[in-house]
Amino acid sequence: MSHAFPTINEQKQPHAWAIAPNAGALKSLAEGIWSCAVQTNQRPLVVLSTAGPLMGVRAALEKHRPKDLPSHIAFLPQVMSFNDWLEAAPGAWKFPKKQTDLERWLSVFATLRKHKELQAWFKAETEAGSWGLAQAIIAACDTLSNSIAPGLQQELHKLIIHQKELVTQNTQSWIETLEPLLDRTIGQAYPALARKVVDQEAQVLLTFWRYITSPSDPAFRKQFAMAAHLEAAKKIAQANVRPLIWVETADPTPIDKQLIQGYLEDYAQYATAVEVTMNWESVALWAEALSPQMPEEQKLQTIQANINNVYPEHWRLVAANRFEELAWATAKTIEQHLISGKTNIALVAQDRLVARRARALLARLGSSLKIQDETGWKLSTTRAAAALNSWLELLRAPPEGPSAADLLEFLQNPFLGLGKCLNANSARDAESLNGLVAHLEDILIASQAKSGWETFHMAIEGSVAHRSTAPNPLLLELLQSIRGRLNRWRGIKINCALAHQYLMDDLELMGMIQGLEKDSAGKQLLELLETFDFDVEHQQISMRLNEWLSLLKTVIEESSYEEKGINAAATLSILPLSSTRFREFESVVMVGCDEQQLPAFSEPPLFFSDALNRLLGGSSIEAQFIQQARDLSQLLISFQSIDLLWQSKSKSGEPLRPSAWIQRLQMGLPDWQAQNASALFTPRSATAAPSQMAIATLDSDLPMPVSMSPSAYKALRDCPYRYYVRSLLGLRKLKGFEEGFDASLAGQTLHKILRNFYHAMKSEKQKSLSTIVTDAKLRSAWMQDQLILISEQVFKRLIEGDARVLGVLRDWQKQIPSFIQWQLDREARGWQFHDAEVKVGFDLPFTDIDGNERHIRIEGYADRFDVSVHDPELASVIDYKNQNLTKVKQRSEAVLDDPQLLIYARASNEGKEIPGRAVSAAEWVALKAEVKKDGDGAERSVVIAEMPDLMQAFSEQMTEDVQSLWSGKPLKAFAPDSVCQYCEARGICRKGMW
Questions:
Q1: 10 Å Cβ neighbour count for 938?
Q2: Residue 214: which of 94, 87, 83, 104 has the closest Cα?
Q3: Three-state DSSP class for 618?
Q4: What is the pLDDT of residues 209-251, one digit of tens each?
């Protein structure tokens, strides 16, 4: 229970007051503060050791203000957190300039650069690891500085009194004071056998501490501020010095406790000082939450008495089997509290992942629920930070160019101003930007252009290879604009000032600053970037680009995002267990109450074991354990409606028990048992409805196709439903970039090589003095050299963009001798190359369901036409397949279902593409034949036999298929597994379910 507020007297010692941290703690504290004001007839200054309860204490003071107070003390007592009180010290402008964390990191970086012996000791494999090490070094040095702080209080007080200038010489004397203290501590913490190693580590750390410690460090600024406050109290007449009430909201470290008690003793010489501590006797539910000095028997009696006074009927234990089930149970529990009319709810995030998932589920409630996340939502998780990071990833790209994924991620960020990148100022220009990035994405994915500027340019140029239009100039201009911004960073020596200037210029010229200023997280990100505008000393620190980028990312990762407040009917506060002290909530839901996460400990600082850290006066694992036991005790005592949830099975499927504290509490409360999370959800019943074969009925408003490609007709033959989904509805699977070099891009590249090769061969034969016509050996050698040369020329740009393409070129080069031999054998049979990549087509007449005569255009690009030298009326069509011969033979077994060559033959004959000749021969050519050891003579072609009969059957089949399609008959989903395996519509037709 809380003790009565002490009677203020003239003693020169701090008054001690203990309150119980239960549901009435805020009321007791407020009444005690007002009692101090009345007794001293002055407005007291209240300093809280932590900032969390600040608003709660002020609200309690307002609520419990006594009546009929004198006017000069009727105003609320001044309530401040310890850090705010330090910053408000009189004459703080005289103190050494305060350094930001970022400036201290840079000081560590610069020190490492200057001193080779430190570089040899402190290494990290990555740039990010280096900045993490810098943080650890600063934390270790602060621990060392804090450990000597009590011994420096008087000396620092003298410096303030005499207003001496704080110079490096003073810092050096502090370091010399520390060395014997640290040596003595190490001797107590470690066995004598390990002393040699520990001494060596301690010596290096002390050396580093000597180099970077300065009077502007937090440990010493704290001393300056406390001394300044004390000096100000001394100068004021004793009757006018305000009472000081120190509220210890959390257990301090031994070194902090020593500092505060020393200060309060000094302050009590001039005015009333009250130290408010927590009395855990009436609150503690476990022995470790009580004072270690209390006898064990008394502890057991106290704990049992406290358990007898609790009300477990308002507590609920809920266990869930899986992560997702736990998140849903958490959201459902909070939703039930909201339905019951509660408007101020706390979600204690002992398991932060579950809390974040529950928050996402609760976001469905919209603006009616205000969610405040106090667990440290990282700025790096916002879309504004993701947008900036997408540009930083481009800066890391090699000179050849970034990956397509990184480029598209940047171009698709919502803060990018495409108009500013392309200087598009007019309305017409702005309209032309619509869909520009989506168009670029389609091109890069279709061509599988994975990386490199040259590859991207080739993909854009190749996307219009069969069209009369030129590439979209805006796409090329966009790539050039981004490339120009990146090239500005190449080959320059980076320092902090130059890197910051370049980055802000980039964001301005790409229109990102304007977008970020309109976003709450974007504003905070821009404010964070302003902190990189250092003073002159830090601006000139040079570093590699990757080091600076890693520093920037580390700073963003360490920064928390502050959400904008909104007005809502109810508020949900997501907070850690420690933040529930001196807070008021109608209900509390706590997740992560299993044995692995409750209690949770933070590792001791790098370079210090837990034992050494304890001896230096810092926080220890034991102290954290005690504090969490006390926090959980006050949580259960202070709030009546409490739900404790945890996951009862680990990721590996092994059972997880509730926290040992909960198990021990259950022993004293046998009726307090856990329920399964499934009990929170209302059971639902339904009748099973097996899936039926998917059938599509054509919409009357859906326009019928007026043209069809060979691949579209093949899809119609494979499965009409597939054709409907893909060609009529235009639905496509969202594709990405595959590993390795895409087979379709490889095929396109080889088609281009062969087209160029045959045209070069045709031109060479037309030369009057060419010897390749008459000399067979020279012809074979010329053909092989020419095909190798053209292959290297075409692949060159691809290899510059993506070096992995070199493997595809090498595989093709192994095929060249065999391919040349096949070409020579074909010429020996009387075939001569005529043309390649020829667009052909024909109009197919048919009758629709109403008896009307209609036509549909069937057209595509034929890979190659040959003519016979023996028969002036005969021609042949060839289609290349970047496959092995076995797969090509499989195609020949179902020519009518894959009539690509038949379509080209009919189109050529009806369109008279080869004057005076009819295409009556066709064959597929495999470009991945099984090459023999000598490299020649591999079988690679498959001839379509019985062409005239097949042409007649194909024409009748195609007319029937098109008439059936136009008739509006239902389209059923059917196809063999070989077709369905890679079908884009399989997720819609659900084959395998019916």
A1: 19
A2: 104
A3: coil
A4: 666 777 777 877 888 788 888 888 888 766 678 899 999 988 8
